[in-house]
Amino acid sequence: MVETICVCGAGTMGSGIAQTAAQHNFHVILYDVNEGMLNKARTAMESNLQSLVQKNKLTAEASAAIMSRIQFAGDPNDCLADLVIEAIIEKPEIKVSLFNQLSEVNHSDVVFATNTSSLSVTEIAKKVIHPHRVAGMHFFNPATIMKLVEVVATPYTNQQTIDIVTQTARQMDKTPVLCQDAPGFIVNHVARPYYLEALKLVEQGVTDFQTIDTLLEASGFKMGPFRLMDLIGNDINYAVSCQVYDALGKPNRLQPSPIQKEKVQKGELGRKSGIGYYEY
Length: 280
Prior knowledge:
Layout: E1 4-8, H1 12-23, E2 27-31, H2 35-54, H3 60-68, E3 70-73, E4 83-86, H4 92-105, E5 111-114, H5 121-125, E6 134-139, E7 148-153, H6 159-171, E8 175-180, H7 187-190, H8 192-203, H9 209-218, H10 225-232, H11 234-247, H12 258-266
Parallel strand pairs: 1-2, 1-4, 2-3, 4-5, 5-6, 7-8
Antiparallel strand pairs: 6-7
Domain 3-hydroxyacyl-CoA dehydrogenase NAD binding: 4-181
Keywords: Oxidoreductase
InterPro entries: 3-OHacyl-CoA_DH, 3-OHacyl-CoA_DH_NAD-bd, 3HC_DH_C, 6-PGluconate_DH-like_C_sf, NAD(P)-bd_dom_sf
């Protein structure tokens, strides 16, 4: 039974996962080597909870109780938990190093879950000391709101690990969907044409991104592809496109967009940088 969750990485996803876990009565350790990121995460969570209080969706007492369940840590020796969820930089060697480091300070049954959106969970797992205790636990942004969690199994993952990750997702009021490790898992594989075809229309001069967003939102999509890429972050979205493209043998239909590549090079990442396809 999971009582304590250690979330590694205090960025947007990590802090969102940590807040969600604390809201559902888990004790949470939010770990980051960068003290500034921890302070920023604390401020963001306090602001999010205060907003819920102002909307009468949460009492001030409940908000305080949620924050009291979160421990902010900069020392890996403090990362003692039943479940470790990493949401750090998308570099497999760094994720592997983190899991192996934390396996030395934790008990023998701790489960390691990676929030990677497109890296091979199998490649990560096979380099971790106990690969049977590694799975994917892919949340979607914003983690406090989006219900879906992809639970990714590798050939090494045992059933107990899958059960723990799945049950924890349910306890966090999420909808877990089990899938086998594959490029882009389910959502990021299926969603590639939504972004890439829209980008191609702009590249070819057929129309502009605002028109595409307006038409797709009018036809029932909650967010057009360009607004959605700005929300996700062009750096993350472009990296996923590149990873899926490479992993599937570089088919022409999935070739990453030069428009998005240029956005990333200019630092026009979307909401988090203040400018992407739109200004914020």
